[in-house]
Amino acid sequence: MLIAFDGPSAAGKGTLARGIAQHLGYHFLDTGALYRMVGLQMIRTQTDLNDATKIAAFARDLNVDDFENHELRSEVVGSAASKVAVIPEVRSALLKFQRDFAKRLPGAVLDGRDIGTVICPEADVKFYITASVSTRAARRFKELCGVGVDTTLEAVTDDIIARDTRDERLNLPARSSKDVIVIDNSELGVEEALAEVLGFVKAKTAKP
Ligand code: DC
User: Fold this and answer.
1) Do strands 27-30 and 181-184 pair parallel, antiparallel, or not at all (unpaired)?
2) Which CATH code fits 2-199?
3) Which of 67, 106, 190, 198 has the fewest CB atoms within 10 Å, measured from its CB?
4) pTM exceeds 0.85 for this model
5) Is the beta carbon of 117 within 6 A of some atom in ligand 1?
6) Ligand 1 touching residue 193 (CB < 6 A)
């Protein structure tokens, strides 16, 4: 059983994907963290962004200890992640990791940008989670304030717009898959959105 969540940054897809995985007892993979790990490694080693061979080597040999590293969540690392994500060798190096993870039993939930289209087009259920820029910014702002980050709503909004622009350059077909379920998460609370997603999963996987 494989469930794919795609959508722009800070739309809430991570919260939903993690929540559904927990509810169903499935494995969860935040694929953005993989790109962030490569970006972090590039920063640490002061590798030039043009050195695609070296950066792809980081992707082939992920430092799994970094999975829980708080540094991954920083804007600097997020920005580095979106830069390394355009390197084709990085994308193909991470493809195998993601596809292997997707085979885990009894099921897997992956969240990212191209899960339902490129990584696992055979996924049983595919979601595209979106929300307005203002909702995404307000949520991210609250989250950052909650962990003591000193920032402003304007700065967070600018970051989200900049991230969307960079992500557009990836040219990923996240939404074009015809069997994708699009959920606009702008007006929904977490519990409501989780219930909606779970309803779709149950409907899609119900035995006739
Ligand atoms: O979701 P995130 O902010 O953690 O993702 C970090 C970057 O990685 C983002 O700029 C897009 C990129 N990414 C990607 O190209 N493909 C994915 N499956 C997940 C993330």
Assistant:
1) unpaired
2) 3.40.50.300
3) 106
4) yes
5) no
6) no
